Protein 1
Amino acid sequence: MTDHDTTVAELRKRMAAFVQERDWEQFHDPKNLAASIAIEAAELMEHFQWVPSERSGAVRDDPVALGEVAEELADVFAYALSFANALDIDVTGALFAKLEKNAAKYPADSYYGRYE
C-alpha cells in the first residue's frame, strides 16, 4: 500500500479495526489520543534534536535513520487517525478548510519566500 493507492477513509478503517481487535477503544478517548499525538511528535523531534537545520535533511541519505523517523511519523499519524475516529472528524474536510483559512491569512503574493 502506498499514498498513491490508499484513501484516508481506508486508513481510518484500518486503524479502527486495529484498535477494535485489541479492545483499546476504552483507552482511546480524545484526551488520551491528543496526549499520545504530542508524545509521539516529541519522539519524532528527538531525531532532530541538536542537529542544525541545514543538516536535518541528511536523514534521507541514512536508511536506518530514515526508517526510524518514518516509524515515528507513522505513530503520530496512527494516533491522529484514531483521534479523528474518536471525534468523527472528516480529516480531508478539516485539512482543506485549514488550507483555505491559511491561504486567506497568508496570501502567496504577500508571503512568498517569507515566514513572518
Protein 2
Amino acid sequence: MSEISGALKIGTTSLVLDLLEGRFCPLNIELADPIAALKAISRDPTLKTVVPLIGGPTIGPVDIQRQYLVAAQQRLGGRDEETDWVLITWEQALADLERDPMLCRDRLDWVAKKWMLDAFVEAEKLSWDDPWLQSLDLEYHNVQRDEGLYAELMRQDKIQRFIKDDDVRLAIRQPPRDTRAYFRGRCIEKFAKQMSSVQWDEIAFGENDHESVVRLLNVFDDDDVARYNAAIDKAPDVATLLRNLEMIRR
C-alpha cells in the first residue's frame, strides 16, 4: 500500500540482485536455518530477535540488511538517481527501525498497521485475539479510497508519498514507452476488436476461428521491448503486427 514501502521492496531487491550478478554480496552471512530465521524475524515487531549463522555466531535482522546496504553503497552508489534514492531511503529506514520501529509508521506498512492496531486495542480495551483486529488488518488494504484504513492515513497526511495522483492517472492511460505495458496498452488501443484475450504474459488475436498468440513472457531485454513497442506503433493492422513480430523473433 505504502509508496515508499513498495519502492523499497522493489529497489532493494533489484540492488541485491545486482550484487549477486557481480559477485559482490557479503560472504559472511550464511544462516544456519534460513526458513526458521525468516519465521522468527517476521514474528518479532521489535526486531530484537537474533538468528544463528553457520558456525555459531548470531546476527540480527537490521545487521543483515545493513551489510547488504554497505555493499550496495560501495559497489552501486552514484550509478544513477534512482539507485541513490533507494540507498538513502534504505539507510534511513534501517536507522529508524534500529532506534524505534514506530519511527517508520509513515513509510512501512507493517509498522503503520501495528501503530493503528495498538491504538485501537488500547482505546477499545481489546485482547490481541479479538476477531475485530483481523477485520481491521484486512481493512487496511482496502483499495476503496472512501473505505480503506490506509487511505484514511493518506487523507490525514500520516503516510509519506512521492507519487502524485495526477501522475498515477496519466500512467494508467500512458504507460512508460520502455515497458511491455506500453505494448499491451497500444494493442488494446489499436486492435481491441480483434483481441480475444489479454494476459500479463500474452495477448491473443482471434479471427475466423483462428487464434494467434503473442507471448511476452521472455520479452524483458530493453532492445526486445523497444522492438516490440516500435512494431505496435507502426502496425496498421493485426496481420502486419504479427508478421513483424515473427521477423523480430527470428
Protein 3
Amino acid sequence: MSPARITVAAYGDSLVEGWGLNPSDALPTRLEAALVRAGKNVRVLNFGVSGETAPEGLLRLPEVLEAKPQAALLEFGANDCYQGVPVEETEKALADMVQGLLEAGVAVLLAGWRTREDLFSQYADDPMLEGMIPLAPPLFNAEYVRRFNEIHPALAKRFGLPLIPHILDSLGEPLPGQASHFQADGVHPSATGTRILADTLAQAMLPLLP
C-alpha cells in the first residue's frame, strides 16, 4: 500500500503566491514537483497572498491550520521592510505563526528576507520601474536594516527551525543564453527562478517530511 499523501502549506506573500507568473510556474507548484521527483507523495497548497506583511499573514493562520499540513514553508518579510513595519511587530507576528504551527504538529521551514540600505535608491532614476517599488518609508534606515536582518536567524535559533537565511539566495546570475531568474522588478522570481528556488527549498524540506 502506498504511503498516505503528505500535505505541505506554502505560507507567505507574493514570492509564494506567484506574482506575475502562470499558476503552473508558481513556487508551490514547482516545490510540489521537486518533492515528487525526490520520491515524496506530497501536495503543496498555495497559501501565498501578494502584498501581505507578517501581521496580516498571521490573521490567516487558522485557514492554514484547517488544511492540516504536516509541514509548512513559512515566508514573510519583504513587504514588512518595504512598508517600514516596526521590527518588533514583524518579529512577534512571525513568532506567533511559528508557535501556532508547531503547536499543531506542523514542521516548519523558515525562509527569511534580507534587506539592505540601498534597497530603494537603485530604482529612483528608472522610469520603467516607477511605482513598482515604493519610496523608502520613514523607519527605513541603517538601524532598521540591522534589526530587521536579525529577525529570521533569531527566530530559527529560538524555535530550533531549519532556516533559508534569504529566500532568494540561490538565484545568482543566469548562465549565457539562460532566461533571467527575475522579473522586471528585480525582486520577484521568473519562471526560471521559481524552478531553481523549488529545488533548493525541496532539499531543505525533505528532512521535515514523514
Protein 4
Amino acid sequence: MNNILSLKRRQLVQAIPALALGGLAPMAGAQAWPSRPLRVIVPQPPGGGFDFVARALGDRLSKQIGQSVVVENKPGSGTLVGTDAAAKADPDGYTLLMGSVSNIALNMGLYDKLSYDSLRDFEPVGLAVSYSYTLMARKDLPFNSLQEVVAHAKANPGKLNYASAGNGSGQHVLAAALWHLAGVDITHIPYKGAQAAYQDMLGGRVDLFFDLSSTARPQVDGGKVKALALSGAERNPMHPDVPTILESGVAQLDLESWFGYFVPAKTPAAVQERLRSELAKVIAQPELQENFRSRGGKPLNLNAAQTKALVKRDVERWTKLVRDIGIKAD
C-alpha cells in the first residue's frame, strides 16, 4: 500500500511542471506575438477608401509593433472574395481584415447564402474613422433640396434616376433605402465603379448619385454638381451648409461608413487584446486624425465595448432593412 502511495506521489510531482508549462503556453504565445510580419486583407482594389485607411493604419501599426504590416488587396465579387479569405485564415493574429459597413454589415442582407457571418466569424480590433455620404444632383436638375426631389418623384414615379457604383454597393443600398422609406420610385442605374457614374452625372445623363463625402467634395466645390443632403447623423464640416437626411424630414435614415481592422473570431484572446492596445495607440495619433479630417472623415474614439456595440447595431439594422426592401447584390 505504501509503495502504491509513493508511486502516485512521484507521478503527481512529475506532472506538475508539465501542467504548469501547458498553462503558460498560450500566455507565452501571446507574449511572443508578433514574431513575423502581419498582413491586412483589403477586399477592394488599390486606391479606394478601404485601401487608404488600411495603409494609413498599417504604416503606423508597423512602427508601433516593430514588424512589417503588409496590405494585400483581394478584390472580387464586390467585397466577398477578400472578406471570405480573411474569415478562413489561420486565427493566429497575423491576418487582419479591413472591415467596413459594406462588407461587414450590408453583405449580410444582400446575399442569401453568404460564406461568412460577420458577428460569428470576426472580432473587431478597432474602428478608426467614419465617412458620411453626400447625395448629389446634376448641376442643371431644377431642384435644390431633397424635399423637392421627393415631391417631384411622388408626382412623377420612375421619371428620375440615380446612379451607383454597382448593385449592392454602399451607394446603391443607401439610395434604395432612402427612396423606399420616402415612398418614391426612382430608377436605379448601376455602373462598374464610381468613376463611370461620375462621368455620366457630369455629362448630365444621370440625375442623382450618393458617394462618400470625401470624394464628392471636389465635384461639389467645383460647382460641377449640387449637394442636396448628407447621410450622417450630423452635418459634415466639409459641407456645413448641406442638411442631413434626418433634417430634411423625408426619412428616418442615417448611415456613416466606418472603417477598421478585424480578426478571425478564434484568434487567441490575449493576442486580440494586444492588437487592440497597439491599434488604439495608432488611432489616437493627432497627425493621423488630422489626415482623416482633411479627407472628410470623422476620427473615431471608441473602446472595445463601444466598438462591438456599433458593429452589432449596424449589422442587425442594415441586414433587416436590406432584406425588407429586397435589395440584392446581383
